[in-house]
Amino acid sequence: MAYEYIAIDDPVFRATCEERNQKDYVLVKPKDFSKVPITLPNWAPEPCCLDTRYQKLDQRIKGMEIKPDDVWLVTYPKSGTTWCQEMIWLICNDLDYEKAATVKLHARFPFLEIGGIRDLPPGMDPFQEAISMASPRLIKSHLPVAFLPDQMWTVKPKMVYVHRNPKSVAVSYYHHSVSLHEYRGTMDQFIRSFMKELEYYSPYHRHVIEYHHLDYQDNILHLRYEDMKKDLKSSLQRVSAFFNKSYTDEQLNALAQHLSFDTMKNNSSVNFREWVEFLLEKTNRTDKLSDQDYLFIRRGEVDGWRRELDPELMKELDEWTKRKVEDPKHMKLFE
User: Sulfotransferase domain: which residues (predicted)?
Assistant: First the structure.
């Protein structure tokens, strides 16, 4: 087995995990990571918080065949993933808005390991859909570097990695977990668990730093959520150049409008409205259907955390980052 599954022994977690609907959370430690081309000295991956369901997929993902023309988008959750999926798909598919409107994003750009963290409706198998797609395949994942397929490091398909300010991630991840993962705790509980690295795909800082230390030639592009919000057109130009695509200013302006928050929020091909409605109805929370905090595409803000976090929690999050980021030159990744 390539992984060791370790029960979470944190006493607060153990005492409250069932009432918060996190009883299946587990720490997963990679045993073989020698193929990962990382430039951090004496590097060894820390256990990642996942779900017991991940055992169904761990070996299949690790041994997955990688194709040279694959396109991978990797993020820590709530870092602008859906926004970037739509952007990358359109740039790689010659701005085919018609197909983008008629084929759901999850079918165009499948979420590789979602079946390893939650139960899915009968017949839904994103992993199988991903490996069966016609080339070029566009694939989304939140997995840390040590969990990606071994062939990634020899084939080296193009990869885009996106990161976002930790306070924004924490608040957005809480709301996402309430609506889509049926999380039943408070925001304070969630963020304290997040700082203990006990939410899916944590540890957060290691996730970001490790992807920024891959020896991956010129086949990885790093994007920052806040930079995209500040100047989306420049980001579109960078992504287009990365994929050897050339578009006019008029085309890029139209793409920027298509990717605006209001357009994305109301775009049924990307807003996962049906999935959110299904989950809220399944869990008797239909009163939340019109609550903006329960939408998949919620607010799309850079500093909305300022309204939702109390000063003490803001301070704790900043101190947490200072503790976790040992090298000062990495601090700019978390501004």
Answer: 68-327
Dump the DSSP string for 98-150.
HHHHHS-HHHHS-BTTGGGTS---TT--HHHHHHHSPSSPEEEE---GGGS-T
Domain ranges of the chain: 3-333
Beta strand 220-224 with 158-163 is: parallel
**Rounded-to-integer distance, Cα 76 and Cα 250, Å:** 32
> Above 80 in pLDDT, residue 292?
no
Residue 4: strand, helix, or coil? strand
Neighbouring C-alpha atoms within 13 Å toward the C-beta of 65: 7
Identify the weakest region by mean pLDDT among 21-35, 40-54, 140-154, 274-288.
Answer: 274-288
Collapsing DSSP states into helix, strand and coil, what is residue 38? strand
CA 219 to centroid of chain Cα atoms:
19
Report DSSP letters for 236-298, one per residue: HHHHHHHTT----HHHHHHHHHHTSHHHHHT-TTTS-HHHHHHHHHHTT-GGGTT-GGGSSS-
> Which are the catalytic amino acids?
142
Distance of alpha carbon 254 from alpha carbon 91, whole angstroms = 12
| End-to-end Cα separation, the chain, in angstroms | 38
Q: pLDDT tens, 88-125?
A: 999 999 999 999 999 999 899 999 999 999 888 788 89
Name the one residue in this structure whose structure tokens are 């799309």.
300
| Contact status, residue 205 vs residue 197, Cβ threshold 8 Å | no
CATH class of the 3-333 domain in this structure: alpha beta
CA distances to 66, 171, 224, 301, 314 from 229, in Å: 32, 17, 9, 8, 22
Which tokens belong to 71? 């396109």
pTM over 0.85: yes
Identify which has the larger pLDDT, 240 or 263: 240
Contact 193, 183 (CB under 8 A): no
So what's the pLDDT on residue 297? 53
Find residue 27's DSSP bridge partners: 6, 49
- Over the stretch 305-316, which tens digit does the pLDDT of each residue have? 677 788 999 999
Phi and psi for 247 in degrees, rounded to 5? -130, 150
